[in-house]
Structures are given as structure tokens and as C-alpha cells.
Amino acid sequence: MKKGLVAFALLLALALLPFAASNMVVFATMVMAKGLAVLGILVLLRADQVSFGHAMFFAAGAYTAAFLTAAWRDIDLILLLVATLAVTGIAGLLIGVFVTRYRGIFFGMINLAFSMVLYSILEKAFHITGGSDGLRIRRPTLLGFEFSRSEFDLVMFYVVLAVAAACCVLVGRYLLSPLGQALRAVKTNETRVEYLGLSAKSVLLTGYVISAMLCGLGGVLMGLVQGLASPEHAFWSRSAELVFIAVLGGQGHIAGAFAGTLVFEWVRTSAAALLDDSWQLILGVTLIAIILWAPGGLIQLWHRLAGRRTSSDRTGSESGVAE
Amino acid sequence: MTMNIAALALLDGLAYASLLFLVAVGLTLIFGVLGILNVAHGSLYAIGAYATATLGQWLVAQGFNPWLTFPGMIVAAVAVGVLLGGLIERLLLQRIYSKDPVLQLLVTFAVFMILENLQRMIWGVQPYFMSTPLTVLGNVRLLGINYTAYQVLFLPAAALVVLFTLRYFLRHTNMGAQILAVTEDREAATAIGINASRVYFMTFVIGACFAALGGALATPTTSLVTGMGANMIVLSFAVAATAGLGQIEGAAISALIIGIARSFAVYLSPEIEVIMPYLIMVLVLLVRPNGLFGKETVRKI
Amino acid sequence: MLALSKVDASINNIPILRDISFTVGPAETVALVGRNGAGKTTLLRTIMGFTTCHGEMRFEGADLRAVDPHRRPGLGIGYAPEDRRLFSRFTITQNILLPAQVAKLGETETASRLERVYHVLPELRDLGPRPAGSVSGGQGKMVALGRALMLSSRLLLLDEPFQGLAPVLAQRYAEALGRLREIDPTLAIIITESNPELLRSFASRTITVERGQIDSDASNERTT
Amino acid sequence: QDKPAELNIGITTYSSGAASVFGVPARHAAEMLAERINAKGGIDGVPIKLHFIDEGAGLETLLTEYRRLVEDEGMDVMFASISSGVCNKIAPLAEDLEVINFMWDCGTQRILEDDDYDYVFRTQANATPEVLAPLAYLLKHHPEFKTLAVVNQDYAWGRDSWEIFQAALKSQRPDVEVVAELFPAFGAADFSAEVSRLQALQPDVILSTSWGGDLDTFVRQAGQRGLFDQSLFVLPLAESSLQRLGDSLPEGAIVGARGDHYFQHPERRDDPEFKKFNEDFKARTGEYPIYSVYHMVQAFAALEAVYDKAIAANGGAWPEKEQIAEAMAGLEFQGLGRPLSIREDGQAVEAQLVGMTGTSEAFPFKIIKNIEIYDAEPLMAPVGEESLDWIGKFEPGRLDISGTPFEN
Amino acid sequence: MSGHDQGQPLLQAEGLKLRFGGIIAADGINLSLFPGEHLAIIGPNGAGKTTFLNICTGYLKPNAGRVSVGGQEITGRPPRRITRMGVARAFQIPQLFTEQTVLENMLLAGSIRERRWNLLRRLDGIPGRAEMEHLLDLVGCADVRNRLASELPEGKRKLVDIALALALKPKVLLMDEPTSGVASADKFGVMETLMNALREAHVSSVFVEHDMEMVKLYATRVAVWAQGIIQMTGEPEVVLNDPDVIRNVIGN
Ligand SMILES: Nc1ncnc2c1ncn2[C@@H]1O[C@H](COP(=O)(O)OP(=O)(O)OP(=O)(O)O)[C@@H](O)[C@H]1O
Ligand SMILES: Nc1ncnc2c1ncn2[C@@H]1O[C@H](COP(=O)(O)OP(=O)(O)OP(=O)(O)O)[C@@H](O)[C@H]1O
Ligand SMILES: CC(C)C[C@H](N)C(=O)O
Ligand SMILES: [Mg+2]
Ligand SMILES: [Mg+2]
């Protein structure tokens, strides 16, 4: 299939990035890590549920890494990822059971409340969490090897690339599967979902757990790259940012999650470098321009530029596996 | 002594709750009508405060009667609400009412970022302060403790005035009815002759004025610093959600609950003070998923 | 009174109506029939200004397209949508009165129009204090009809008003609508219906819509 | 090594966020200083070029930017940062990146006490003397107090500074009862509940190491409601709020300056260089310098001094960064207070200025009177020792220390 | 549980009572549906017909009374549990997944019925696809199968809504005014094929209807609703000729 080919070419191109532009490696790693979290938001957006608290899972991922690397000096990266999936999966399940009762703005708010509670605890429990300064994350080993900072950057790049690619494929599959499609059904008509014999709550819960794990992965990887777990990770504006990026990229599009993150981070860093103390201004203006000009997000823009048919009104059939 | 503490906590909570209500009520009004959770509300609050401080300092510096700072607060709030709120609505929101609610929300988030930045560019980063209204009203002594009359008398009174005015406006005026109708179904409202875009405009501006008014009234008691908007907005989210979105009276009550709970926390267990609003929100929503006063009356099938 | 000429209409850039031309004179009752999806609803919504359209639309000689959608009801056009669209936060009575309130009609005028509504739909008197969010499918239809009657001094647009009504009621309303012209001889009515039988009794003309175009336009012999 | 075309300095400072009350003036200072240095030909003929990073943009952004500056833009020296939280994260990063980093303002004593760094230095004092000096001053001037309450911002600095203060207080005055420990949220907008509670408790002393808007708000609300008549305020960071607070501060509150600098520094105020700097700064920004400005001055002074020293040691040739790092230990330099020096652990030794608020006709705000300037050594944990352990070993009377007193 | 009893009702309501504030929407409803029956419910607007269906499917909880399906009490269970017991429902106001195509709507119904939740298998690749396309054909909606449900005209929506219920292969199908809004030119054709399909699959049905022609043609029994009570039940010929019913419901 053509799409698969494009995806493969893109993956290959990315894999060669360190050779072409080594100074972009860390940036690209962070974009991909954050993109994973955005992917998590995207899953819930399918059901039209906007969480203003998913940064809590992002933070959970980062703190998992911080605690574990502090406790075991040579813990392995793989183990960290597995532990994060477990922690955020369970947290997602526990919180999910509660929050999936809510819809719309209340869903957003209740998530916000949870994340703010976590944020406050992270800030307050100074002796455990390092308070507002957060915790350092030490470099873990990978398969027993230890790395210097610059080697580690490269390792992280490939690890994140692999994780992101795998998640794209899996999430793409999930969204096209009946349960993934049911998310959309929950969005438009929950009554009918119930009357087909399916519990809307469990549809959402599945999505919620998956999205929590994706945010957790994003968080742990981001934390490892930056060597930092900070309560800021759980602050509401972070969650809002993730939602923002998801919509910016193009709702419902896996490629959009990463494209959105790329543009967001790129605008942010170049704004910061270009004109200091105006990154928020520049970012805000850019985002408004995109929303007004291409409400379907970057993906729509891309389709438009590529002369393809606008897909925003017909997101139905295609959702772009691992674009 | 415990009785005393309770009374003190109530008094402190009351002042805080009044401010919280003023800000949250605008948020809930805008949400109730436009269905937009206006994240920029926090910035309007902050800018209202800065404008008030600037105007107030000028008035004082020019040697005007210090009592003039009271009308000054209202002038500044209305100016900010009408100008900024009006601009935001006309230039941005107008274009996106028909779009996905998520997009609307994000536009307000973008506006929030822009305003935060602009505010820093205009007023800089040094804290501002304008306490004249506080000083002219003086203190009152209650239970052996000095309170500022501004906080224990003026603010609650202002909140009550706003509450009742708004209530009357929505319940008993033509405009109020139109607002409620547009909220529910824009096309159907247009079909009976309601100018929906005017209603949206008015509502947004009114909501924005309340945000700015909240900021204006907060000015005498707080230092204006960058980032004050971001903190206020989450709190008013919590108030509005606890009440049930769009619930005016509800916002008053939940502001009161949250305000009082917070000041009790300061006395009894300062550690949990910051978590209090969210804890209350979670607990309330646990029992009443649509908030304290939110209700689901619409029959779907 | 209402004249459409070469009107095309689209929703979200999807063209739906093509080349619609017809006129409705004062006191005329026109039935709009057609299969599902023919475009009847879209046609009424176009007159109300809820679609993107091209071509010419005149109402009492003036260009209707130049009038903002929210001002059209003020011209005396009442519209009862197919899917009811009541304001659930208000009671039934408030729903019916709201158009008058918005138009700032005087008290006596409002009262007389309300009388007219009750004349056609006596059931609404009893339903009055109920919240509009709770009524049954058929009751909702009645309320929508009543609300449209409040404003329609010149033109009344009814989208399948009898759908889901018990047959006795449907018959009674059809008759009542017929009588309406006795009270208000200049009122024109456009009514869509997928059951042409019901309309025979009082529609003076039947326009058949097929796939977004007018298929036929013929006057009926009045039976009664 | 050949002389580079320019010496690139990366500076992290708050341009946004609450701490920009320190960051923005410091930035102005940095720009002013760079202009001055370049006007006289730069450092050994090499002009300096500044690159700023906003600490307020959040740690993540900051770390990214920091790396970008060092790795892509080739910074020679980094000045980072204001916040202890940021320093905590920057220090290991700088070490990894092998770039000279001056912690130019952050207070946490832990970084250099807990780990050994080759590239990380601090060009001013740390939290320990900054907190102990006001305590010593309090013990000397108002020894009669029996109860104390603390109102600190709820973040690392507020917690850490209280920890140090409390440990030291306990060793000196075990009889003093701490009646309330309040940690309102960082950036809290309203302290009325705290003020009410303090009124009810009536502690003899109220300590607050808060700063910026938080301190301003707290002081104003406390003042308005008459808390000053009841309790003695000890505000180790209030020097930075004096100009904003006008007459909201009472007379006689104990204030500190996080080091030995003050625009009315009793030993320096008649010094032409000092006056010139203050006047230039005032002309440029409309304000008198506050401590963060002087901290920036110290960082630049250390920079100039260490390059001079390393160049001399290198036989007049431009030094490698390793040579710079080596030259740091034992470096002596002169900011706008008393002379400073760098210990072998990279920590600067800086005197501490503490005093009481008082009124003056010359300024429309409170000034510091009854100043004492404390020598740093007795207030600092020796190299290799952690402050809290060191304080834990305090004998009673350990802090009966006097600084150099000044009448006015 | 005991074995299947020939005479056991598929669906049974006993003494259902429900009031909304002052309005009595059900006032002691007793009704049983036996295998092979096609029961028509007629009555004036607001009589409580939809309410009855809502109670039977668990959407509303009665104040009193009980509902059982195949002898098992289900009062108060949520709709999904009742649906899984073989009671499907079509709605007075169509309930569709508006942002998905008609076919996707159907496929979703099909896969929910099969309860296969492989997270990695595409919805449009599920085994039941042919069957779903057939059902769409049956209700005359094959032509719109790739349109988004939101774009359908009202009449088609009602038909798709019925198809969704059929996709569940229910034992009992409850339909609320199945063809109101469907153009008269089409409605008899659709109803004819639909009822034939039901008979063929041995599905019993309850349908609320205002069109007496339909009732005459397809009902095996008629129940007349009025103000929350069942006024009478019986053979269509009898009920439809009852003078009371003619006066209150049918008209002339
Ligand atoms: N929002 C929309 N987007 C796209 N197409 C639409 C939309 N609304 C209606 N249509 C299409 O317009 C055509 C006409 O629809 P309309 O609702 O006017 O039909 P109708 O004649 O009223 O049918 P019915 O008798 O079933 O109500 C249909 O083909 C429908 O699919
Ligand atoms: N949620 C509710 N709240 C209040 N009243 C309700 C509610 N649901 C139904 N009712 C009332 O109960 C009565 C029965 O309603 P129901 O929908 O069952 O009528 P119906 O027989 O289906 O009418 P129709 O033929 O018009 O669909 C009506 O008077 C209705 O107004
Ligand atoms: C403002 C300061 C007291 C903050 C301090 N520099 C810190 O280390 O966090
Ligand atoms: Mg129609
Ligand atoms: Mg019904």
C-alpha cells in the first residue's frame, strides 16, 4: 500500500537523521516523546473527550523513572519503560473507572482536578518528590551498557523512534478496530451504544487506559532525555498544551500528533531564540492562524497543499496508520 | 477557642469566596451561553487588575479624592471587558462558533498565551499594588482580630450585588431569555428572530467584564504579578465545575464552600490548603456528576 | 408574496438544491411533497436563511437574501422545524411566547396571537407549564407548530407538522390550519409532508420535489 | 589557543514568571556590564556577547535551550541560574557538557555540598549564611522572643531556608516555641487567612523568607491589619522589596540582603565606582539595584578575574576551559560589596549584610538601618561538610556573633 | 432454570407505574408479548407509549412493577444488559452514530453483537460485513451506505435506525413509530420487507404506530394506550373498529 510505503520511507529518513543533522537529534527525540503523549490525547479525542489532566500521566511516567533510577543505580531502560506502562496503566484504570462516568466539559474538569491534586502533592511532598524543583533522573543502562551523555542522546533517539513507530502502528490498528471505532460512536450517540449492548463506559475506559499509558511513555522518555521529573509536568497548562497540539496536528490523525508536536516545539524554540520573552505571543498567534485557516489541523493543511481532497469532513474511513 | 477558629475561618473564607465568585461567575456565564470554556478568562482577570492598579495609582498621584478609586475599579473593569472582550469575540470567536468546541477552547487558550505575554510587555514583571480602597475603608475588629472592612464587608457585598443583578438579568429580562435560548440551539433561536451573534457578543463582553471586575476588586488586597491569571483560571474552573457549569447561584455557593474550606485548611491542616478546591470538586462530582446544581433535563429519546 | 427564482442551495459546500423557482401568492397553501432526501427540509431552511444559496429570493417584493436570518421572522415568517428544536430550559408556554417577546410585541398583540395558537392547538393550553425538555415526540411537534404560529402573520413554513401525531389530532390540525385562513386571509402556508393524503383537504397547490429539483407544480382542486 | 573573536556568555534569568522581579533587573545589569567591558576592549581584547534564556519558560524549555546554546552556539561560559530548582538540574548537565557554569544567584547549599563538580561554581554565598546571619542578628537585637511563626513560600527555597533556620534556632534557643508553620502556595494571591491566624496566635516573631509579589502581598495585608504592632518581622529577603513596598513596611523589621550588597552599603556608598554603577543603573531602569543585580555584578567580576588569572597562568595566551576551571579555586574578586573569594569546592565566600528598616528623608521608601555586616566564614559549613550536619553540631551560643555594626 | 415453556411470554410487563412529577406516564401497565406476535401500540400523543418502551428496555426505572424477558426479571437493569438478552429497539427519534457512515454504523452493531474485541482487527474487515450490507438493502438504504449518518434525510435515518436494531439479531424488536417520516411512497414497501424478514427470522415485535393502515396490515394484536393505561387490547379488526378508539385515536 502506498501509505505503508510513505511511512516506511519516513521512518528510514528519520533513522538517518543523526548522520545528517546531529544537532537535531535531541530535539527530534523530545518531539517524538511528546508526540506519544499527544497520541494518547488523540485517542480520547476520538470520543470527543478532552482531558485537561492527562499531563498527570506524563508526570507519572517521569517520576516513575526518577524514583526507580534513584533506587537502583543501574536499572535498565527497558525495565523503566515496562514499569511505566504498568504504573500508568494501573493509574489509568483506577482513575479511569472514576472519570469515565463523566462527559464533555466535566470529563475535562474532573481530570483537571486529579492532575491538580497530583501537582499539589508533587509540590508539597517536598521530601519525597523534591517539591517544586522536581527530581533528577539518572541515565539508566540499556541492555547492560552504560553510556556517556552524548551516546545516551543517540541511544534515546533510536529508542524513542522505535517506541513511537510501534505505538503508531498499534494505535492506528486500535482506532480502526471495532472498539476504536466505538469511541467515535460514544462521541455521537451514547444511547445507541448502550442499546447495541455495549457499555459506553468500558469503551471509554479502554481508551482511557491506552491513552494514559501513551502519556506515561511520553513522560518517561521525555524525562530520560531531559534528566528531569518536575511537578510542572502535571500542571494544567501542560495538559492543555497536549490537547492543543493534538488539535493543531489534526484531530484523529496519528501523523498529526507528531506533526503538531514538531510545529509546536519548533515555533516555541525558534520564538524563544528569535525574540526573547515573546514565545508565548508568537506561539499563540501561530496557533490561532492555524486554527482559523486550517481547522482540520496541519494534516488538513498538508492535504490541501498536496492538492488532495480535504479530509476533515470525511475523517470517517481513513485515519492514517503510522503515517 | 474552636468556635473562635471556626468563626475566623468563616470570615476569611467569605472574603476569598467573594472574589472567587466574581471571577468564576463570568466564566460560567460564558460557558453557559457560548458553550466555550474561556481559558483567556484568567488573563482578563489579570489585565483588569493591572488596569485598575494603573488607573488607581494615577488617580492617587494626581491628588484626586482617594474614594474615586472605587469608581475607578469599575471604569477599568468595564473598559478592559468591553475593549478586550469585544475584540476577542469579534475578531476570533465569531469565526469559530460553528466549529468543533475543542477548537473554540483552544482559540481561547491561544488568546490566553498571547495576553499573558502582552501583559508582561505592557506592565513588566514588577509586582503592582494599589491599596487605596483598602486604606480608605479602614479596619473592623471582629472577635479580637483586625479585618479590613474592604475584605469582610465590601467584597461580599459586591459579590451579592453581582449575584442578584445577574440573576435578575437572566431570569427576568428579554435579553436574559434570549441568551438562554441561543445557548441551547442557535438555529432555532435565529428562526424565532433572535440575533444570535449579538447575544454571543453581549454575553462574552459581560463575562469578560466580570473577569476584569474580579481582577479590579482583587487589586487592593494582592500584588499583581505575572502568572496570577493562570492560577486564578484553574480555581475558577474548579468553582464553576463544582457548581455545575452555567449555574450562577451555584457558582456563589461553591465559591463559598471552596473559600471556607480553604481557610479552614489554613487553620487546621495548612498542608492540604492548595488541594482543597480540587478535593472538593472531586467529592462533589463523585456524588453529583453534573455539579452541585447542574441538571440534565433534556429528554433524548 | 414569496418568489424564488433559480435558487441553488448547499450545506457545507455540498450542493443540495438546484434551480428552484416558484412563487407563493397571498392566502395560498402550498404542499411540498417528495421522497426522503428530496430536499424539502433544505428548501424551508433556505427560505429561513440557514443554507448557503444563490439565485433570487423575494418576499413581498423585497430581496429576502439581503435580510439577515434573524430578521426574517420579523417579516412575519414563522417556521416549525421538522425536528422540533424546543428550548428545553423553558416551559411550553415560554417556548411559545418567546418569539413574541423577542419581537417585542405589545401585550394585547401577544395575547391575541396566543389565542390564535390555542385556537389551532387547544392541547397546548394544558401542556403549558411543563418543561419543554420532557414532552413526548408528538407533543413536541405541537409546540413547534404553536411557536411558529406566533410569528407567522404573513408566511408559515411547516416541516412535516403531522409526523408522529395521532391520526385524530393530525386531522384536527389540518382542519384548524385550514380555518386559520378564515381568521387571517392573507396568510400563506408552505407545508411539507410525506403523506399527501392529509394535505389534499386544504392545500391549494402541490409542488413535488425530487432530488433537489422541482419535479412538478400543480394546483389541486379544492375538495371541500 | 588563539583568541576567539568573541567570548560567548549564556545567561539564564527570569524574564517571565514571579521571579522576574529578580531576573529582569539582573538582565539589565548584565547588559550594562557587558557594554562596559566591551567599551574598554573586552576581556583581554575579546569582546563578550550575551545570550539569554528565560527561566520562566519552564525547566524543560530551559534545559533544551541550555543545551542548544552550549552545543550548537558554542558558549564559553554559562551563568545559570536564579532558581535553586534550575541549578539542581543545570549543575549535572553543565558537568556533562563540560562547560563552565557560574551559579550566579541560586541559593541552595546542597549542590556543591552533595557532589563534586569540576565545572560548576557559585559566585555568591549560599542559603546557609543567608539565613544564619538574620538569625544571629535577631538573637542579638531581640533576644527576648519566646514564640515564632514562619510564613514561607511553598517551594524549595521556602522549605530549605526554614529547615536551616529551624535547626539553628533549636540549637541556640530550644525554649522558643514554633507556633505555626505556614507554607502558602507559591504565588498565593491572598494571605488573609494566614494573617488572621497569626493575629490569633500572636507570635513574638514572624519569619518569612518569601520574596517578590508573595512577600509584598503578605507584608501589605499584615500591615493593614495591624500585625506589625504585635509581632517582630524577620524578612531575610526584604531588601529586594524595599522600593516597591514604600511605607507598607514598618520600622524596625529585620531585613537581609542575601549577601553583602545594598545600594546604601555603608562601606561602599561613598565609593565613586559604586555610586556610578548605582546611578547608571537607576538611569537605565528607574530603580536602584537590588541583590540580584549585585549578584550579576559578582558573576562578571569573577569572569574577568578568572580570565585574567588563567591568562597570566598560561603565559599570556588565551586559556582552555580546563585552565579556567582550574583557576577558579582560590580566585579572589571584587563585586560591589566586600571582596569575595572562591573556595576549593567552588563556593564563594561572601559577607552578609543585615539590618532593620527605618525611614529616611532621601528616599520615598524604607531603608536599612542599624546595619551589621557579618564575616562569612563563621556562618558557612566548612568545605566537605553538609550544612545541616554542621548546624546539628552547634553549641548553645554558637551564633552569638556580631557583625561590623554601622550606625546608619 | 426450567426449560422453555411454549406459553411463556417473551416479554412481560406487570403493574408498571411511573410518574414524572404530576404527570402519570404509566399507571399499572400489564402486557405480555408471546412468540410470533407483532403487537401494535396506538394511542394519542403523550399517552405513554414511548415511556413503556423506555421502561421495558431499562432506560427508565418504573416506580412500581416489574419487567421480565423470557421469564427472567430485568427491572432496573441497564439497557445494554437487556439488549444482550435479545431485546433490540428502534427509536422514535433516530439514534445514529452521526459522524460515521451508514455502513460503519452497521458494522459496529454487528461486531458488538459478536462481542469480538480484537484490538488489532479493522472494523471494516469483520466477518459479518455481507450480512450488514444485506440488512441495509432490506430497509432500502443500500444507496446511502457510504454517506455519513448526519447527512441523511429524516426518513432514511429512521430506516437505518431500524436496521441497526435488526443487526443485533434480536428475539424481540421494539420499534417506535418505525415509518413516521418515511415518504408514503416508500413506507409500505419497506414495512412489507421488514415484517417478512421478521417473520422469517421468528422475531416478535412491538411497534408504536400512528398509521392505521400499517396497524391493519401487520399487527397480530393491538393495544390502545391512553394516559398511562392500556385502554384495550385485541385483534386489529376489533380494536380499530371500536367507536371509542375511533373517536380518541383514529378519527374518520
Ligand atoms: N448537513 C448535511 N450535510 C450534508 N448533506 C445533507 C445535510 N443535510 C441534508 N443533506 C442532504 O440533503 C438532501 C436533502 O435533505 P432534506 O433533509 O432536505 O430532505 P427531505 O426532503 O426533507 O427528506 P425527509 O422527508 O426525509 O425529511 C439529502 O440527500 C441529505 O442527505
Ligand atoms: N422525562 C420526562 N419528564 C417529564 N415528563 C415526561 C418525561 N418523559 C415523558 N414525559 C411525559 O410522559 C407522558 C408520556 O410520554 P411518552 O413519550 O411516553 O408519550 P407517547 O405516547 O410516546 O407520545 P407520542 O406519540 O407523542 O410519542 C407525556 O405526557 C410526556 O410529556
Ligand atoms: C529568590 C530566591 C530566594 C530564590 C533563590 N535564589 C533560590 O535558590 O531558589
Ligand atoms: Mg425533511
Ligand atoms: Mg412516543
TrEMBL record, chain A:
Membrane-spanning residues: 49-70, 77-99, 105-122, 155-176, 205-230, 242-267, 279-302
Name the membrane topology term.
Multi-pass membrane protein
Q: Which residues form the signal peptide?
A: 1-20
Which InterPro entries does the record match to this protein? ABC_transp_permease, LivM-like
Provide a GO CC annotation, any one: plasma membrane
**Keyword set includes Transmembrane helix:** yes
UniProt subcellular location: Cell membrane
This entry's Gene Ontology molecular function terms read: branched-chain amino acid transmembrane transporter activity
- CDD domains to which the protein is assigned, alphabetical: TM_PBP1_LivM_like (cd06581)
The UniProt entry lists the main location of this chain as membrane
- UniProt keywords, alphabetically: Cell membrane, Membrane, Signal, Transmembrane, Transmembrane helix
Pfam families for the chain = BPD_transp_2
Q: What is the name listed in the Swiss-Prot or TrEMBL entry for this protein?
A: Branched-chain amino acid ABC transporter permease
Protein's organism: Paracoccus salipaludis
UniProtKB/TrEMBL annotation, chain B:
Q: Which UniProt keywords apply?
A: Amino-acid transport, Cell membrane, Membrane, Transmembrane, Transmembrane helix, Transport
Membrane disposition? Multi-pass membrane protein
Output one GO MF annotation.
Answer: transmembrane transporter activity
Question: Would the keyword Nuclease turn up in this protein's UniProt record?
Answer: no
In Pfam terms, one family for this protein is BPD_transp_2
Q: Name one GO biological process term.
A: amino acid transport
Cellular localization per UniProt = Cell membrane
Membrane-crossing segments per the record: 14-37, 44-64, 70-93, 105-129, 149-170, 199-218, 275-293
Predominant place of localization: membrane
Highest rank taxon of the organism: Bacteria
One GO cellular component this record assigns the protein to is: plasma membrane
Tell me its family.
Belongs to the binding-protein-dependent transport system permease family. LivHM subfamily.
- Its recorded name reads Branched-chain amino acid ABC transporter permease
Origin organism is Paracoccus salipaludis
From TrEMBL, chain C:
According to its UniProt entry, one GO biological process term is: L-amino acid transport
Alphabetized InterPro entries for the sequence: AAA+_ATPase, ABC_transporter-like_ATP-bd, BCAA_Transport_ATP-bd_LivF, P-loop_NTPase
- What SUPFAM superfamilies does this protein's entry cite? P-loop containing nucleoside triphosphate hydrolases
- Gene3D superfamilies recorded for this chain? P-loop containing nucleotide triphosphate hydrolases (3.40.50.300)
Which Pfam families does UniProt cross-reference here?
ABC_tran
Keywords carried by this UniProt record: Amino-acid transport, ATP-binding, Nucleotide-binding, Transport
Q: Which GO terms of the molecular function aspect are on file?
A: ATP binding; ATP hydrolysis activity; branched-chain amino acid transmembrane transporter activity
Residue intervals of the ABC transporter domain: 2-224
User: Transport among the record's keywords?
Assistant: yes
Q: Does the keyword Ribonucleoprotein apply?
A: no
Q: Which family does it belong to?
A: Belongs to the ABC transporter superfamily.
Under which name does UniProt file this protein? ABC transporter ATP-binding protein
Q: Which organism is it from?
A: Paracoccus salipaludis
Q: What is the lineage of its organism?
A: Bacteria, Pseudomonadati, Pseudomonadota, Alphaproteobacteria, Rhodobacterales
Automatic annotation (TrEMBL), chain E:
What SUPFAM superfamilies does this protein's entry cite?
P-loop containing nucleoside triphosphate hydrolases (SSF52540)
Transmembrane regions: none
Its Gene Ontology molecular function terms?
ATP binding; ATP hydrolysis activity; L-isoleucine transmembrane transporter activity; L-phenylalanine transmembrane transporter activity; L-valine transmembrane transporter activity
Chain ranges of the ABC transporter domain: 11-252
Lineage top rank: taxon: Bacteria
Provide the GO biological process annotations. D-alanine transmembrane transport; L-alanine transport; L-isoleucine import across plasma membrane; L-valine import across plasma membrane
Q: Which InterPro entries match?
A: AAA+_ATPase, ABC_AA/LPS_Transport, ABC_transporter-like_ATP-bd, P-loop_NTPase
Q: Which UniProt keywords are given for this protein, alphabetically ordered? A: ATP-binding, Nucleotide-binding, Transport
Q: Which GO terms describe its cellular component?
A: plasma membrane
- What is the name listed in the Swiss-Prot or TrEMBL entry for this protein? ABC transporter ATP-binding protein
